[in-house]
Amino acid sequence: MLLTCQNIQKSFGEKTILDQVSFHIEEREKTALIGCNGAGKTTLLRIIRRELEPDSGQVVMAKGTSLGYLAQHQDMHSSRTIYQEVLKEKQYLLDMEEKMRQTELAMKQADEETLEKLMNTYAGLTQQFELNNGYACQSEVTGVLKGLGFAEDDFHKSITTLSGGQKTRVSLACLLLNKPDILLLDEPTNHLDMAGNLSVQLPGSRIDCVPRPLLPGQSGHPGGGAGTGKIYDLYRKLFLFQPEKSTGKGSPVQSLAESAAGNPASGGSHRQAQVLQPGKIHPQSREQRKTAG
Question: Distance between CA atoms of 3 and 119, rounded to whole angstroms?
Fold first, then answer.
C-alpha cells in the first residue's frame, strides 16, 4: 500500500469541507476524486502533500514514496525554452557529466600519485552517471516532450509565449522525468486532453481530480490503461469504480441509491460499483464552495 488517508477532517471556520474521508492507494492503482468546485478536491491534495494540516486524521505513505503534483493553473514565467525548462530536471546529470569532462582533462596532466586519485573519482562518477541513465537523458527529454504532443519545432519556443494548455504539458513533462511513485493531477482536463494528447506513459499510481463523473472509456477515467482504477465521489459519499481484474474493465458508475440498494450493474460480467464506508461531505452553498479547493 503506497498511500492511506485515514479519517481526514478539515473545516474552514464553521464550514466543514472534508469529514472523515478515508481511502487508500495500492501500487499501480489509479484513483479519480470526483466533486464539483468547492467539494474539497484541491484541499485533500494539499493535505496529502503536507501543505495543509487536517483538523484530524492522518496521511500515511510507504517509506520512500515520492509524490509529483500537477496544479490546476501553471504559474510559469521562465525565460527558458520548452526544451531548456524540461532539461533542467536533469541538471544533476549535466553537472555530473561536466565534472567527468573536467576530471578527464585533469588526468591528462596529472602525476602518477594524483592520477590514481583522479581515476578513482572518474570511475565513481561514471558509475553513477550510467546508473542514472545519464547518456540517454537528452533523448529521454525529447521522447517525453514528443509523447506530450510537442513537435521538435516547438522545443525552442519560449515559455512566456505558451498557452495554458502548453504550460500544463511542460509541467507534466518535468514531473514525468522525475518518475514519482504517485502522480497527483488537479483537474488536468481543464487544459489537457488526457486521451488525445498523451502517448507517453503516466505512472501506474496516480490520483486524478475531476469535476464531474467519468464513465469507463471517457477521457481521464482511471480505469483506462495499465493498472486498476477507483472513483471516489467527494461531494456526496465516497464510492469506487472497481475494474474486473481479469479484463481490466469495470462497471459503469452507478448512482449512490442504485449502489446502496445492491442493484446489479449493467455490462454482463462486470462488477457493480461498491459503496465504501461513507465519508460525510456536507452539501455547500455556492458561496461556501468558493472558499474551498
Answer: 44
pLDDT in tens, 137-160: 999 999 999 988 899 999 999 999
The SS3 of residue 15 is: strand
Whether the CB-CB separation of 241 and 230 falls below 8 Å is answered with yes
- Give the end-to-end CA distance of the chain in Å, rounded to a whole number: 26
- Of the candidates 191, 192, 193, 186, which has an alpha carbon nearest to the alpha carbon of residue 211? 186
* Alpha-carbon span 58 to 22, nearest angstrom: 9
- How many CB atoms sit inside 10 A of residue 185's CB? 27
Q: How far apart are CA 10 and CA 48, in angstroms?
A: 12
Position 293 pLDDT exceeds 60: no
Residue among 38, 1, 39 at smallest CA distance from 279: 39
Q: DSSP states of 28-80 as a string?
A: TEEEEEE--TTSSHHHHHHHHTTSS--SEEEEEE-TT--EEEE-SS------S
Mean pLDDT value across residues 51-73: 91
Phi first, then psi: what are they for 233, rounded to 5°? -90, 115
Q: Over the stretch 102-129, which tens digit does the pLDDT of each residue have?
A: 999 999 999 988 999 999 999 999 999 9
In whole angstroms, give the CA distance from residue 230 to residue 31.
5
Question: Which of the 8 DSSP states describes residue 157?
Answer: S
Sequence-distant (6+) residues with CB within 8 A of 237 are 256, 275, 276, 278, 279, 280, 281
